[in-house]
Specification:
The complex is a heterodimer of chains A (323) and B (336).
Chain A lengths: L4 E3 L3 H14 L6 H9 L3 E8 L2 E15 L2 E13 L12 H13 L5 E6 L3 H10 L3 E4 L2 E6 L12 E4 L6 H9 L5 E3 L3 H9 L6 E7 L5 E12 L2 E10 L5 H17 L4 E4 L6 H8 L3 E4 L4 E5 L6 H7 E2 L9
Parallel strand pairs in A: 4-5, 9-16, 12-13
Antiparallel strand pairs in A: 1-2, 2-3, 3-4, 3-9, 5-15, 6-15, 7-13, 7-14, 8-10, 10-11, 11-12
Chain B lengths: L5 E6 L5 H15 L8 H8 L9 E6 L4 E14 L2 E13 L12 H13 L9 E4 L3 H11 L2 E4 L2 E6 L14 E2 L19 E3 L3 H9 L7 E7 L2 E13 L2 E11 L4 H17 L4 E4 L6 H8 L3 E4 L4 E5 L6 H4 L14
Parallel strand pairs in B: 4-5, 12-13
Antiparallel strand pairs in B: 1-2, 2-3, 3-4, 3-9, 5-15, 6-15, 7-13, 7-14, 8-10, 10-11, 11-12
The chains are: A alpha+beta (323), B alpha+beta (336).
Chain lengths: 323, 336
């Protein structure tokens, strides 16, 4: 029988719990970044105590997802950690399994979070697949383009410019894009501002393509990052209606110019393989490459299982906590 | 109409073949508009144990001896990490409509799949540690829930126009058409070495798969230079994922032998043009270096067909890890 007490933290326990996560995970995030991430969506947080000692934690954040004519929540599990002394391998009663199982029980359900997802480390995978119903949604595949190859110069009437702050047009654009998608984050101004415009240290740049009337026709959000020793432009959002290839060409060209000017070698974009842009951007010179970002899902509704999500869920690097 | 009752779930024998084939035709004709009945000769070719492969199966039968459900897999020689082993390709598995439970867990199909796994899946001698297949969506859901299927590869193919200028051989490197794989020099299985998970594509396998098949016509070619085999390819005019194209059943060279690969791709393109087909389709896993190299020659990644599902009995090698080591080809499936 487990000696752990697993529950949501009381208000006064939240900050010690976040500090515990930073310490156990080697402080990959500053306190400010961590607070920002927790504030991005309704936080999902459980701690595990042995007596009075905090020995484990799971952190996640829920995001509003449009699913048909309803809005549901999908939750990204961003952090899972257990005190070093308790890491006893992958046994059935491992604290990882206990913690995650409790998390799913507490927050998941057909009328609660419909999907929990993340990019687990190997030990979580092993416990999760065998005992907690994890499934691989998709092996990591990204589109990569070499920089700079600039084409599609702006023509009179449409301009690409940096978007400092999102307004009501964000939702208009999202609604023009999402018609063919079965499930996708509601990319309204509140979401995009919280996720990108208000991020600590301002690492993101949003490029909007506007027509002569000032209507937002397409959007790219990217940031510079080092991965595998290479300086890359990671594209977090690619939001272009399927029927507007000229908008895509302009944003692609602007991204290439901006990223090349920063001395970056390649741009990396994640779109689902069923997306029109998966095909079109290959024609424009992007190559499909494997990437070490396998996405795991735990779903709580039989109709929206991993097979369904694979074919219908639009997500990109922006939904993950990798960048 | 009385509901048939499963009275026995047992390994199939050679004597069951006519009844299984008859039930197979009924099951697939009911759900696949493009289904083509399989001849007795083709059934014999596929299921009769021969040197190097077999196709163990389990059937559920009713009290009259009628086959209600069937689970089978081709047992094939493979290698992983340089070690010889057997893997299995799930094929022809079905439950007749009206059979108790249908494809559900407690039905004949579930019982057959579970019995097959009990008999043949695992890491012991004579067992299969790696089972794969390309199930349709409904079978996928049953397989994931009941038989431990996991996603191995998405339904992606490489696609190229047969007229592409980049699919040209370098001067002096031309593939030669091949009647049989036992012509010298051999060594087909030695072209790829290393730690990947792949079928053993030796002359015996290739001869069975692409020469002895009684119902499908394949064109075969190899590239020999200085008396040494540099690569081989197998092509077929066929339909994959609902699209007719020149199907690259095999394209095997050493990983770093780009000229040999280009020469064989030129031959494959020529086969397609000669057949009036404007497109080539091939299967290359994303982790293989050729996946990106071929895109640089103008191949594009498309979604087509069904995803690859697999099950692994190796605790250290879950399916998601094997995906990075697996070197598949369209010819690894029974669809081409």
């Amino acid at each position: 029988m487990s000696a752990l007490t697993i529950r949501a933290p009381h208000e006064h326990e939240r900050e010690p719990l976040l500090a515990f996560v930073r310490a156990e995970l080697g402080a990959p995030r500053t306190p400010r970044e961590q607070a920002w991430q927790q504030a991005l969506g309704p936080p999902r947080c459980l701690g595990a105590w042995r007596g009075a000692e905090l020995v484990g934690a799971v952190l996640g954040r829920a995001t509003a997802v449009r699913l048909g004519d309803r809005v549901r929540t999908f939750t990204l599990i961003s952090d899972l950690c257990v005190a070093r002394a308790l890491r006893g391998g992958l046994a059935r009663a491992s604290p990882y399994v206990e913690l995650l199982g409790a998390f799913f029980e507490h927050f998941g359900g057909s009328e609660r979070d419909l999907v929990h997802f993340g990019t687990p480390v190997e030990r979580s995978w092993r416990a999760g697949v065998g005992q907690l119903g994890y499934e691989l949604l998709r092996p990591g595949l990204v589109l990569v383009r070499a920089l700079p190859t600039v084409r599609g110069a702006d023509e009179p009437g449409q301009t690409v410019r940096v978007v400092e702050h999102f307004d009501h047009q964000a939702l208009w654009l999202d609604e023009r894009c999402c018609g063919a998608w079965g499930a996708s984050v509601v990319r309204d101004a509140a979401y995009l501002n919280a996720r990108y415009a208000d991020a600590p240290e301002a690492p993101y740049e949003a490029l909007g393509c506007f027509d002569a009337e000032g209507v937002l026709r397409g959007l790219v959000v990217w940031r510079a990052a080092r991965l595998g020793g290479e300086a890359l432009a990671l594209v977090l959002e690619w939001l272009v209606p399927d029927a507007e290839p000229e908008v895509a060409a302009r944003l692609d060209a602007a991204l290439a110019r901006r990223a090349a000017a920063r001395g970056l070698g390649h741009a990396v974009l994640l779109v689902p393989p069923w997306s029109k842009w998966f095909t079109c951007l290959q024609t424009a010179g992007w190559l499909v490459r494997p990437a070490d970002i396998a996405l795991a899902v735990r779903t709580f509704h039989p109709r929206h299982d991993a097979s369904w999500l694979r074919e219908h869920w639009w997500y990109g690097l922006g939904e993950l906590d990798l960048a | 109409m009385p509901v048939p009752v499963v009275v026995s779930v047992r390994p199939a024998t050679a004597a069951d073949a006519p009844a299984i084939r008859e039930a197979f035709q009924r099951a697939f004709a009911a759900v696949d508009a493009g289904f083509r009945a399989r001849t007795a000769a083709e059934w014999e070719w596929l299921y009769r144990p021969q040197a190097g492969h077999a196709a163990p199966a389990v059937v559920a039968v009713d009290e009259a001896g009628c086959v209600l459900a069937h689970y089978a897999a081709l047992s094939l020689r493979a290698e992983f990490d340089g070690v010889a082993l057997r893997c299995a390709q799930a094929i022809d598995s079905f439950a007749l409509r009206g059979a108790p439970g249908g494809l559900a867990r407690r039905g004949g199909f579930g019982a057959c799949g579970a019995a097959w796994a009990e008999l043949h899946f695992g890491t012991g001698p004579g067992r299969h540690a790696f089972v794969y297949g390309l199930p349709v969506e409904r079978a996928w859901r049953v397989g994931a829930g009941l038989l431990g299927y996991e996603l191995l590869h998405e339904n992606l193919v490489l696609s190229a126009g047969a007229a592409r200028e980049t699919l040209r051989a370098a001067p002096g490197l031309e593939a030669e058409e091949l009647a049989h794989f036992d012509e010298r020099p051999g060594g087909y299985e030695t072209l790829r070495t290393g730690r990947a998970l792949r079928l053993v594509r030796d002359a015996a396998y290739l001869e069975w798969r692409y020469v002895a098949c009684p119902s499908r016509a394949y064109r075969r070619a190899r590239l020999v230079r200085d008396g040494r085999l540099r690569g081989f390819a197998v092509w077929r005019d066929g339909v994959y994922g609902g699209r007719r194209a020149g199907l690259v059943c095999e394209l095997v060279t050493a990983p770093d032998d780009a000229p040999a690969r280009a020469a064989l791709q030129a031959w494959l393109a020529e086969c397609s043009r000669a057949a009036g087909l404007d497109r080539l389709l091939a299967c290359v896993a994303p982790a293989q270096p050729e996946f990106v190299a071929d895109q640089r020659l103008g191949w594009r990644v498309e979604r087509l067909g069904n995803p690859w599902a697999a099950r692994s009995a190796w605790p250290r090698w879950p399916v998601r890890a094997l995906a990075g080591r697996h070197e598949p080809s369209l010819g690894d499936t029974d669809l081409v």
